[in-house]
Amino acid sequence: MSDFSLDLNEDQLQLQKWVHDFSESVIRPAAHEWDEREETPWPVIQEAAKVGLYSLDFVANAFGDPTGISLPVVMEEVAWGDAGIGLAIFGTTLGVVGITANGTPEQVGEWLPQCFGTADDVKLAAFAVSEPDAGSDVSSLRTRAVYDEAKDEWVLNGTKTWITNGGIADVHVVVASVDPELGSRGHASFVIGPNTPGLSQGQKFKKMGIRASHTAEVILDDCRIPGRQLLGGKEKLDDRLARAREGKSSRVQAAMATFEASRPAVGAQALGIARAAYEFALDYAKERKQFGRAIIENQAIAFKLANMHMHIDAARLLVWRAAWMSRAGKKFEGAEGSQSKLYAGETAVWVTEEAIQILGGYGYVREHPVERWHRDSKIYTIFEGTSEIQRLVIARAISGIHIN
């Protein structure tokens, strides 16, 4: 277990600079175009693959950092460039986490390379949990997986929604109910390979922000997959279901295992947006003159920037702590993962709004990127657990009471 430190080591500093340089030279210049087009930025993803930023090796090294800090450092720098393109590049990691959190070593070895492909043949992955009637309440999933014992196949039916890379991914990780009477304890995760009959893209959503990231429905219509594509295997599932039916404790549910591992990284993305807006507003306040002096010389502006800086630093501390705890195997006694995602997400919304206020009319027009950052920030109080759900998780953790 690594000792916790607020100082990045030499490897992390080099990593931070490398990713920042890529964001500055490749991602930022492309951000406005792909936000306007609302399409997956394939040229940027391909460039990221060529330099090694989009690859299994890179993600494995970032996840494998014993301090846990490398991944949030990367996510912050990429989102500083553009959150929509950042999600287009790293949306695959949700599927990767879904496989590693629930799969056997053999399944991890088989499917993770297929999530990324190669620099010359880029692939994508998706993680599908949410449904039209099951967002925050994952226990009410209606997508069913039924086992056909004669053929050793699982048959999946249902509709998933709000799925990053949904329908265009080569590998989909789908959470489905195998025993509806058990609620969330009756869920299991399945991996579905490319060109599988019965899986198709439904509606593609036109969004307020992160518009370079593809978000769509995934339709499962008698989608048949081999039995071996149940993550964790049938024996393990049967044992878990039997324990649940007897009222015994079981391991974390399939969806929750993924969310717990990803929340600090999601908080880091929000942090990157907030930092981008703060830096832009700071530079603007130093240059913009009114009544014969730079507007930062007015306390009303200077204090805004001081508060923005303070909240960003506080958010980073929460994110780094949660990432370190997760990597070190420490239990989140106070829902530290939820704290990090909640605070960073709300900080991003508030900081970007303050940045718009500092720029005035210029902050409201597309000539400057601040309005895009504000649009992008809002999703971080909604996806992967709304702010309200995060507060519920924290409240339950600190009280020991099942608060509804």
Secondary structure: elements and pairs:
Elements: H1 10-37, H2 42-51, H3 56-64, H4 70-81, H5 83-90, H6 92-102, H7 105-116, E1 125-128, E2 144-148, E3 153-164, E4 171-177, E5 187-192, E6 199-204, E7 215-226, H8 234-245, H9 254-287, E8 289-290, E9 293-294, H10 299-328, H11 336-359, H12 370-377, H13 387-399
Parallel strand pairs: 1-4
Antiparallel strand pairs: 2-3, 3-7, 4-5, 6-7, 8-9
Helix pairs in contact: 1-4, 4-5, 4-9, 6-7, 6-9, 9-10, 9-11, 9-12, 10-11, 11-12, 11-13
Overview in brief:
This protein folds into 3 domains: 10-116, Orthogonal Bundle (Butyryl-Coa Dehydrogenase, subunit A, domain 1), CATH 1.10.540; 125-245, Beta Barrel (Butyryl-CoA Dehydrogenase, subunit A, domain 2); 254-399, Butyryl-CoA Dehydrogenase, subunit A, domain 3 (Up-down Bundle), CATH 1.20.140. With 404 residues, it is α+β, with helices and mostly antiparallel strands.
Describe the structure in your own words.
The chain is of the alpha+beta class. The chain has 3 domains: 107 residues, Orthogonal Bundle (Butyryl-Coa Dehydrogenase, subunit A, domain 1); 121 residues, Butyryl-CoA Dehydrogenase, subunit A, domain 2; 146 residues, Butyryl-CoA Dehydrogenase, subunit A, domain 3, CATH 1.20.140.10. Helices cover 52% and strands 14% of the residues. The protein is built from 13 helices and 9 strands. The strands form 3 sheets. The protein has a 4-stranded antiparallel β-sheet, with no helix packed on it. Strands 1-4-5 form a 3-stranded mixed β-sheet. Strand 8 and strand 9 form a beta hairpin. Helix 4 packs across helix 9. The longest helix has 34 residues. The two termini are 36 Å apart. The mean pLDDT is 93.
